[in-house]
Structures are given as structure tokens and as C-alpha cells.
Specification:
Layout: H1 7-32, H2 36-60, H3 62-74, E1 78-79, H4 85-94, E2 104-105, H5 113-128, E3 135-140, H6 144-151, E4 157-161, H7 190-200, H8 206-214, E5 223-228, H9 235-245, E6 250-254, H10 273-276, E7 280-283, E8 314-318, H11 331-346, E9 352-356, H12 367-376, E10 380-382, H13 389-392, E11 397-400, H14 405-413, E12 417-420, H15 433-440, E13 444-445, H16 461-468
Parallel strand pairs: 1-2, 3-4, 3-5, 5-6, 6-7, 8-9, 8-11, 9-10, 11-12, 12-13
């Protein structure tokens, strides 16, 4: 059974995450002889995911926590990198037996270990002979091309891709071989302390350890600038970024996704680690944060379509990710959303129904069967195409299953847009005037209607732009 937590409990958990991260970093720093500040920066995402995963089981009850303890003890696998953490922890919930026979867990089967070995030595070769000297270094995510254009960078780019530039995915486990941890107190929570001592280092991703070892080779590098869009998951790039920040190099980080300043989750509820670092110039989309009204002089640099809403007979649904946040995402809401989509697909309508899978889609709790049922109900499944100007212009309405970047970009474009906020991310503990205003316009709701024809209603894009312009500098 999933139980919601209140703001007070959330704040206590967040405090223990910060304390744990500091004390864990001290141990790793001493063992690897690297900067403690560097370690804290690189392991922060894993620490947050590990503790929130443990706390979810504790909140659900002692019996669940005891079962988790037994399961974790039996697992021999560990995640390859921080990109795979959500998938790894969800596999523990869905199919723990799979992890008892694998040394390295990775969800991306396209990354062959031999190719990664070649990529690694190619990278070392480029470093040694100064190929990357005096270049702008750039890390790509799905919106970074717009950030690059925003920064007016078009030459001397050394690229690191979040899922491709992970040069350490070898089929062996890199261990720290730590001594007895029994006398160490990581935080004020006894259960968190116990699980950290038993399992934190056991499941510490390979690329975190190997990237930290590699950090010593980066000290002699010289770059013009380092630029990324909030790369929380790329362990290697985080090491490169932090190692160069200490040289007072120009490091510019742009907001990734719309959730910064908007959602109630552990990743963005407090200031991001890039925003907290005074050596990094952080670019936010928001000129005023929706959750607390703080003015931050942000500038929107994402996609800005010029598409006009069409009177077509097509409606596109954009599938949300499965419930990845173990602490805050209710898995029952995801199941309900899928059930409602099936019901809608069976109803008679003047509209044709399309479903766009999330770009990080994977089979979760029978999703393949769910998609097959939709196909049988004559729903067109869009698997590979990215949402762009030409693609989105085909539809009368676009319905997003979560508060995504695409939802706000579609609103900015003038396209008829809705959001079914299945994880209730818009229900922040603090006042969120932006989402409140969009709810009043019926653009954000928590449940799907009973039929497709319900989406055909009056839509005023000028009115919506007026709301958005209070928070985003739309014309910059």
C-alpha cells in the first residue's frame, strides 16, 4: 500500500539525505584520495535515490522493510551507472530474481562492453595529445541543442552524451573494499544508518567509482567553457564539470525540464546542486519560481514552436514514465491512468487516438500487454519519433500524462494542450500559483475524462500566454 508523506516528514528525510551524503563522501574521499567536495557532488543523486527507496519501504511497514532487507542481501548485481538507478530499483520491486544472476545491471543493451572499452581509450588518446585543449565542452540531453543556440556556441565543441559517453561499462564490479563501518553514524535516522552500512556501497554504481578514480587525470586539461543542461545522471560528466569548476573556468548549466521550481520531489524541491555552486552560472527558464515566487531573472531557451492549433480529427496522448520516484510517485495512479486510456480507446468518437511512448519507455508492470490492447482498439502507437514542430502540428489536441517540458512548450506554441497530472505533481505543499491558474482553465487535471470528445472545447491561447508570461520570459 502506498502512503503519502507530509511536508514535515519530507523535510526530515531531505535533511538525513544531506547529512548522509556528507558523511559518505568523507569515507570515499579518503579511500580514493580525491576531493570530498567532488565526491559529494557526484554521489548526491545516488544517495538521494538510495535513501528515498529505503524510506518508501519503511513507511509502508516493518514487514515490507524486513522483506527488502532479505531481498537486498540476496542480490549480487549492481547498477552500471546513475542513468540506470531508477530502472535498477524498480527491478528490485518488480523482478528481484533477475538481479541475482547479473553482475552489472544496465537497461541500455545497445552499449556493448567492447565498444565502451574502445571509447575509453579513444578518450584517453584525445586527452593525452591535447585534442580537447581549448575547446568548449558540451553535454547533450534532449533540450541541449536549444541551450547551445541560446549560448551562441557553434565551434570547438567536445560532445558528451548522457547515455553514450559512459566509457567505463566493463563487465566487472569495482569495489572500494571498505573496512568496518559499524561505528559510523551517517545521519539521525537509525534505519537509514543500518541500510547504508549494509547496502549503500554494495550498490554504488560502477561509473561513480571509476569516474572518481579518473578525476586525477583531468587536472591538466584546459577548456574554454563547460556547458550542460543539468546533468544529474552522467557520473563521468559530473566529474569533468566539478574538476574544471575549481579552475574558475566558465561553467554554464541550463535548466533541464520544467520541473525545477515547480514539482514536489527530492530532485528539485530544494535548490539543485548546480544552482547552489557559486562557481557555476545557472540558467533557469523561470523569471519567477512558481512554488515560492522568488525572482531569479531566468530566460526561456527551450523549443518555441510557431504552430497554430488545427481542427484535425487526431488527438495525441503522451505517455508518462512509470512511477520512478519511490518516495512520492504512487504506482496505483499509473495503473489507473492505463486503465482509463483503454476505456477511452473503446468509446465511440469523432477523433482518432494516438499514443506517443516516452523516450525512456521500458516494459513496466505489463506495459507491453497494455500497448497491445490499445493497438487492438485501433490506437496508433508512436514509438520512435521525437515531438517536433511538424509532428505536433498534425493534431487537434495534445494530452501529456505528466508535467513535462513538452506540456509547457506545447502551451507556448499555441497548440491545444492538456495535462493529466497523474502523480499530482502540481499539488505542491507550498502555494503554486502557475499550476493553480492552469487548473482553473481546465488545462491541468488529475483524471482522464470518459471519452475523447470531452477534449473538444473552447481554447484561448492568448489567455494562456498571459498566464505563462508572468513566470517565463516567452519572447527572449
Amino acid at each position: 500500500m502506498f502512503k503519502n508523506i507530509d511536508e514535515k516528514e519530507f523535510n526530515i528525510i531531505s535533511k538525513n539525505i544531506r547529512l548522509s551524503n556528507i558523511n559518505i563522501a568523507k569515507i570515499i574521499s579518503k579511500k580514493l584520495n580525491v576531493s570530498q567536495d567532488l565526491v559529494q557532488y557526484v554521489i548526491e543523486f545516488y544517495t538521494m535515490k538510495f535513501i528515498s527507496f529505503i524510506k518508501r519501504f519503511e513507511i509502508n511497514g516493518v514487514s515490507d522493510l524486513n522483506k527488502l532487507d532479505i531481498t537486498l542481501d540476496e542480490i549480487v548485481s549492481k547498477p552500471s551507472n546513475s542513468c540506470d538507478l531508477d530502472f535498477f530499483f524498480n527491478t528490485i520491486i518488480q523482478n528481484p530474481n533477475y538481479l541475482k544472476n547479473n553482475k552489472i545491471f544496465t537497461r541500455n543493451k545497445k552499449l556493448h562492453p567492447i565498444n565502451n572499452l574502445i571509447r575509453y581509450y579513444k578518450f584517453i588518446f584525445f586527452f593525452k595529445f591535447g585534442i580537447y585543449k581549448n575547446k568548449n565542452i558540451f553535454s547533450f540531453t534532449d533540450i541541449d541543442n536549444f541551450f547551445k543556440k541560446f549560448l551562441k556556441i557553434d565551434k570547438n565543441i567536445a560532445e558528451f552524451r548522457c547515455f553514450e559517453w559512459i566509457p567505463f561499462q566493463f563487465k566487472f564490479i569495482d569495489k572500494l573494499n571498505l573496512s568496518n563501518l559499524s561505528n559510523i553514524k551517517f545521519c539521525d535516522d537509525n534505519i537509514i544508518n543500518t541500510f547504508i552500512k549494509k547496502y549503500y556501497f554494495k550498490f554504488l554504481p560502477n561509473t561513480i567509482i571509476q569516474s572518481l578514480r579518473f578525476s586525477k587525470k583531468l587536472k591538466k586539461l584546459e577548456f574554454k567553457s563547460i556547458n550542460t543542461c543539468s546533468q544529474l545522471y552522467n557520473d563521468f560528466f559530473n566529474v569533468v564539470l566539478f574538476s574544471q569548476v575549481s579552475k574558475k573556468l566558465e561553467c554554464r548549466v541550463g535548466q533541464h525540464g520544467i520541473d525545477y521550481g515547480l514539482k514536489k520531489n527530492l530532485k528539485h524541491y530544494y535548490k539543485t546542486k548546480e544552482e547552489k555552486n557559486n562557481s557555476i552560472k545557472f540558467y533557469s527558464w523561470w523569471k519567477k519560481k512558481p512554488n515560492d515566487g522568488e525572482y531569479i531573472n531566468g530566460r526561456y531557451f527551450g523549443r518555441l514552436f510557431s504552430t497554430e492549433a488545427k481542427q484535425s480529427n487526431k488527438i495525441l496522448f503522451v505517455m508518462p514514465l512509470p512511477p520512478f520516484d519511490s518516495l512520492l510517485d504512487n504506482p496505483e495512479n499509473y495503473k489507473k491512468f492505463k486503465k482509463n486510456l483503454i476505456n477511452i480507446s473503446m468509446s465511440k468518437s469523432k477523433f482518432r487516438m494516438y499514443l506517443k511512448l516516452h523516450h525512456n519507455y521500458f516494459d513496466f508492470d505489463g506495459d507491453k500487454n497494455f500497448i497491445e490492447v490499445l493497438r487492438q482498439n485501433e490506437v496508433t502507437i508512436v514509438e520512435d519519433l521525437k515531438i517536433n514542430d511538424e509532428f505536433i502540428a498534425e493534431f487537434n489536441t495534445v494530452v501529456y500524462g505528466y508535467l513535462s517540458t513538452g506540456f509547457f512548450e506545447s502551451l507556448l506554441s499555441g497548440i491545444r494542450t492538456k495535462c493529466i497530472d497523474i502523480y499530482e505533481e502540481s499539488n505542491d505543499w507550498k502555494s503554486n500559483k502557475l499550476t493553480d491558474q492552469l487548473k482553473k482553465k481546465n488545462l491541468i487535471s488529475n483524471n482522464l475524462p470518459n471519452d475523447l470528445d470531452s477534449f473538444d472545447e473552447i481554447y484561448n491561447s492568448k489567455d494562456i500566454n498571459k498566464i505563462l508570461s508572468e513566470y517565463i520570459n516567452i519572447n527572449n
